[in-house]
Amino acid sequence: MKFENTYSGLGEQFFKRVLPQKAIKPKLLLWNTVLANSLLIDDNLQNNHHLIAQYFSGNELPDGAESIALAYSGHQFGHFNPQLGDGRAHLLGEIRDNKNVRCDIQLKGSGQTPFSRRGDGKCALAPALREYIMSEAMFALGVPTSRCLAVVSTGETIHRGLAKAGAVVTRVAASHIRVGTFQYFAARDDKASLKALLDYSIERHIPEIKSREINNLESQGANFAEEQRILLFLEHTIDKQITLIVEWLRVGFIHGVMNTDNTAISGETIDFGPCAMMGSYHEKAVFSSIDEYGRYAFGSQGKIAQWNMARLADCLLPLITECQIEPCDESLSIEDKKQAQQQLALEKLEKIIHQYSSKFEVAYYAMYANKLGMSQIYSAHKVLIDSLLEIMQTKRLDYTQTFYRLTQSLKDKIIADELKAELGDWYSTWLSVIEKTNYNDQDNNIEAALAIMSKNNPVVIPRNHHVEQILSRCEDALANSSTQLSANGSIDSIVAEFLTVLRSPYCELDATKNYQDAPADGDRYYQTFCGT
């Protein structure tokens, strides 16, 4: 592994140097070979499970790695906390993958840091496995996401109400820069660090701003070019968030804790603690035990993303203000001039934030149009989409199964007849829309619609009850293991079939049918919990 440490080069104010806590008896439980290969990790290391366990428990640092805990703030359920940071995570550095993209390698559950806030910094086995399973499922579904390279048991017992086996999960992400990272320096009025963070973020995540969109603006003045660069950064970051949230909605994912400290500017899904998948459709579906008022409900995720982007804009305000040319009115006091400059900067940022709603609506309806096999979207199609969601909510229809059956109905008359009875006139109206749709002069509209729907409607998702069953079996297997897990009871063998199915979510394997069923109780009492 060839580590780089560009983030630590930003300065000591961005992190705390701290080593992971030693694991008593680390043992490799899961290893993501496909991801490891994409990260160009040497075969000799991949075959050395003992060394992997040492590295990815935090017992030993790989050559070139630097262990740091990142500083950030965050709005948690709408309430600002100026001092959060990695309380149980250690960033080892960055590795370039086979596409020459820099990726963060971070240990999670690896012990206390200066940001732990009285926590033990540890992670239980189940949350570590949940992050591995859910992130692999999301990746296969085509949703932007962080991923997991390894899960290592630590050989110790931690206490989360009950005694639980400890584990460390290794997260791979485009970066761990959050909206909360910008908030950390904005709250301290540290403009120099804000500027450094902005420059680094653009260089790492949106280099096209520098190379393509700004070069032609420099002739209009340095201040103008810098202002446009900041505004383009916000606009690009918003676009990434819209793409992410619409993909969540497409597959029925509910994040559960969309705080600004869990909002990555890279537009990746990060933090799989209280997440869940929707069964029966309801726009207000909530499963997170800590989301008492439904702030992060399924149908609210789009609005919350806009709110989070507005908080990012707040952080950029002082940088934009500095770019404003002083008002010509010499009668204004220095303070009045500053206020005028700030007001102008605010208006420019607000304009971009206000564009979010229309952009999101376009992406939202385009996504549902694809799920229904429609290549275009008109006002009548929006009404059709809204009507279907209303029917699904009223009849408590399963989200994934309904769209899967709609897909199958285009080639299965039995399913088509069932849906005609279930959805009434809506189904006939939908078919008529498909028949009248222009699919770029393709001869068979049904086949064209089927092709679109098959790419957008998964046949299987990581359903909550199946995830919980797998996690429970893994906990039991590890608890019943004295020195080494048996061949038939290893964590790897327990999750193998489930992961194989989840990694092929748009085609039916022999085992897919084992994981397609909805829960008997409709997830009525299901709750998810933060891993801490």
Can you offer a commentary on this structure?
The protein is an alpha+beta fold and 532 residues long. The chain is built from 17 helices and 11 strands. It has helices at 33-38, 43-46, 49-55, 125-141, 179-187, 191-205, 207-213, 222-251, 301-321, 334-371, 379-395, 399-409, 413-423, 425-436, 445-456, 464-479, 491-502, and strands at 15-17, 27-31, 68-70, 74-76, 79-81, 89-96, 102-108, 147-160, 162-173, 253-254, 276-277. Helix 8 (222-251) runs antiparallel to helix 9 (301-321). It is globular. The two termini are 30 Å apart. Mean pLDDT is 92; it is low at 482-488.
What pattern of helices and strands is seen along the backbone? EEHHHEEEEEHEEHHHHEEHHHHHHHHH
The helix content is 40-55%
Q: Tell me the span between the first and last alpha carbons.
A: 30 Å
Physical arrangement of strands within the biggest beta sheet:
2-8-9-7-6
**Regions with pLDDT < 50 over 5+ consecutive residues?**
482-488
Q: Give the tally of β-strands.
A: 11
Structural class: alpha+beta
- The number of helices is 17
Largest beta sheet, briefly? 5 strands, antiparallel
Given the C-alpha coordinates, what overall shape results? globular
Percent strand equals 5-15%
Average pLDDT for all residues: 92
**Rg, Å, rounded:** 25 Å
Could you name the key traits of this structure?
532 residues, alpha+beta, five-stranded antiparallel β-sheet, two-stranded antiparallel ribbon, 17 helices
